[in-house]
Structure to design on (459 residues):
């Protein structure tokens, strides 16, 4: 179903009082979404993975993102690199499954070899049997194709188009807002990560995460201590949106134990917490004693894989408490699934006009819609 | 080990993904080959690179000396 040309994206970018949401095609039409992807996911800083996915030097993990085969690799100096997962010879996939690479990355086809820093270091028989060099094959020009990347708070971001403004410039506002949290963070390990497979377009997960309006209905367990009026909107046009809470309560173990706090936080964070959708596809949460990142992997136009990773201020937190925390967050995020899947199914209704926003409650969600619409519009998609 | 046994051992090492075994066996194949040794030495070198085996530098030097590698800018993989 093509985009509805009779209702331009200007409606989405209109002031919230009269704006409509993105047209159905942006959720159900692969062709429209393909164009949208270019404007929203390929030319921005998209979240791809976390450094904890490749914890040790030599760890390599192939990842498909928007259908493109990428390779996440931690080099011998400990830096995380992202390459296109292909040999410069015949375009063969280099690494088929996650594994440790001791030395060179050897293409399984003709055995061209690449160092972990991307240099082409061997081209066996390229000049004929037993001749490993020849005119026209300049190794210095045939290293692995690098994908522009940036790591912030262990999240690996990529800019597939290679021409986005620097990450620190694009997200300077959030870096400043959360400057107090710019301290080492430690992934909680295997018990602090989980994946949710959701039958929805990734944008609906962003939209749901942005707003607090749904909390009393979808997460009734919050009503006992975190009421709707305890929340506030977070809105930074073109960058991020979300919600904050004034009433965060630390999780306690059986004997009243808690996680250690991040050092140096101001008093606001004693009971404050913030939840931000960092455009395009990263959901973040910060609290005095833990933070988390949820990477929304756009598997297809109607399927999203949510990769949840929880981090702590120290590397030696209590295992039982960590597991309890992960379980608690998982139960909250599971409560959201019927909503984002329901909205996805609802987008098949031809009578749906994008919907209306509550000027009082849906500001952060509209801000995201307007951002998507403005980028699509600017890219002529 | 005769040539037939070597071939069998090579196949087994390939099937097992035994990189260090492959290095050893391809060096042996090169020794049997005489003038055509660069073919098998190249294989030994490639698997040494993949395995980060310390023999890779010496194998590369032999290939350079034999005229099979002429890219002087090439450095062994880390």
């Amino acid at each position: 179903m093509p985009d509805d040309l009779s209702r331009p994206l200007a409606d989405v970018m209109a002031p919230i009082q009269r704006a409509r949401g993105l047209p159905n095609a942006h959720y159900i039409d692969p062709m429209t979404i393909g164009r949208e992807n270019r404007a929203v996911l390929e030319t921005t800083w998209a979240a791809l993975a976390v450094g904890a996915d490749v914890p040790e030097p030599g760890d390599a993990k192939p990842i498909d993102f928007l259908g493109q085969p990428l390779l996440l690799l931690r080099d011998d100096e400990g830096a995380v690199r992202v390459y296109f997962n292909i040999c410069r010879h015949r375009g063969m996939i280099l690494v088929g499954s996650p594994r440790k690479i001791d030395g060179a990355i050897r293409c399984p086809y003709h055995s061209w070899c690449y160092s972990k820093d991307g240099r082409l270091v061997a081209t066996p028989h390229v000049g004929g049997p037993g001749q490993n060099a020849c005119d026209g094959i300049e190794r210095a020009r045939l290293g692995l194709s690098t994908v522009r990347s940036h790591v912030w708070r262990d999240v690996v971001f990529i800019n597939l188009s290679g021409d986005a403004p620097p990450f620190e410039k694009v997200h300077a506002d959030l870096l400043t807002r959360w400057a107090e949290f710019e301290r080492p963070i430690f992934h909680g390990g295997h018990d602090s990560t989980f994946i949710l497979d959701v039958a929805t377009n990734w944008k609906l997960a962003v939209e749901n995460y942005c707003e607090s309006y749904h909390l009393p209905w979808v997460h009734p367990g919050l009503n006992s201590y975190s009421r709707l009026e305890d929340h506030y909107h977070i809105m930074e046009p073109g960058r991020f949106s979300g919600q904050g809470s004034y009433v965060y309560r630390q999780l306690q173990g059986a004997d009243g134990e808690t996680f250690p706090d991040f050092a140096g936080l101001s008093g606001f964070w004693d009971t404050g917490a913030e939840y931000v959708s960092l455009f395009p596809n990263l959901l973040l949460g910060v609290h005095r004693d833990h933070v988390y990142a949820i990477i929304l992997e756009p598997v297809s136009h109607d399927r999203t894989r949510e990769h949840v990773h929880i981090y702590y201020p120290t590397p030696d937190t209590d295992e039982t408490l960590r597991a309890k925390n992960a379980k608690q967050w998982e139960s909250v995020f599971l409560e959201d699934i019927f909503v984002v899947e329901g909205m996805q199914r609802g987008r098949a209704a031809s009578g749906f006009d994008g919907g209306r926003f509550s000027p009082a409650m849906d500001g952060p969600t509209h801000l995201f819609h307007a951002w998507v619409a403005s980028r699509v519009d600017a890219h002529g998609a | 080990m005769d040539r037939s046994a070597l071939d069998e051992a090579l196949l087994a090492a390939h099937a097992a993904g035994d990189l260090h075994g492959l290095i050893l066996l391809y060096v042996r194949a090169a020794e049997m080959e005489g003038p055509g040794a660069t073919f098998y030495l190249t294989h030994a070198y490639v698997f040494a690179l993949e395995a980060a085996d310390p023999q890779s530098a010496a194998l590369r030097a032999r290939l350079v000396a034999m005229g099979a590698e002429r890219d002087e800018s090439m450095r062994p993989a880390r």
About this structure: Residues 19-33 of chain B form the longest helix (15 residues).
